[in-house]
Amino acid sequence: MKIAIAGSGAMGSRFGYMLQQSGNDVTLLDLWPEHIAAINDKGLSVETNGKQQFVQIPAAFPKDVHDHYDLILLFTKAMQLEDMLQKISHLLDKETAILCLSNGIGNLETIQKFAPKSPLLVGTTLWTSELVGPGSVILNGSGYIEFQSIENVSHETLTAINDTLAEAQLNPRESDNVLLSIWKKACLNSVLNSFCTLLDCKVMDLNKSEYVATLKDKVVLEFQDVAKAKGIPLTEKLALTTINAALAPDQAGDHYPSMHQDIASGRRTEIDYLNGAIAVMGRELGIPTPANELITELIHAREEVTLK
Ligand code: NAD
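# nicotinamide-adenine-dinucleotide complex -> structure
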């Protein structure tokens, strides 16, 4: 398959690398000049289990490519998605499928606005990746993809994409309610990522505070109310089961989650697509969401005082 990765940071580079290794024609599209230059000069540096290799994968700015692609894999941060869609608009047509696996609520609607005729699939993934500098990623662990075709996707296209992801050992699973999975993950991140960022602590440290348990319940109940109004079957029980499993002593990691790392590096966060999305939808629907609203404002305040 001829595949463009639109947003080739940590995750885009991982997926681009794995898809190229299984024989696909992959191009990494990005907007960070030093990252593109490093990949084209030396190859993408991929470190796995302490072993480093340089892999030749073409990297380019979106404006410099004009080929037809069978698949565009969108992997920006949620707040970068709209800008990327504008920059790849010349590559979008009804023959080019789009798959978006970025975190956050609202990505689907953004893509539909910019690419109404495109075959569209969305999903979520448990793969991880770390971008340690321009042109350099560390890949550890394994994961899977849960995805679903949303619109304009033929049976042949769906099968071809599923087979391509499977051949790349990305472990795809077709879902019949991927929006529930996306909301469940957003709810998990709205607790783990947001709380660790505000409390300046690692995931496992959240278990030390009784206040965290109370706050977690407030966030989850508001998610449940808004999800119900939106027709998403995310219940308090389901959300808490997911969050509590991630907080169990043998699971809660001795690490800072990605939002904490974003703030530490002086970058903006995905808060408007997590707690912030619930606050906005709650306002529109007349559903009170004070906990998610306050958390969103506090994270934005942290962004402003730490932004580089
Ligand atoms: P990322 O920050 O590594 O990359 C996103 C974009 O930001 C890329 O275009 C990248 O080039 C650019 N970027 C990164 N650092 C930059 C810098 N210093 N200067 C200029 N540009 C820079 O994002 P990611 O971790 O790949 O995440 C993409 C999506 O996948 C997000 O929605 C995220 O929540 C989700 N996700 C990430 C992981 C993970 O382990 N990284 C796991 C699951 C889901």
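# post-check
Residues 7-12, 30-32, 35, 75-78, 80, 102-104, 125, 128-129, 131, 258, 270 surround nicotinamide-adenine-dinucleotide (CB under 6 Å).
The domain at 2-176 is CATH 3.40.50.720 (Rossmann fold).
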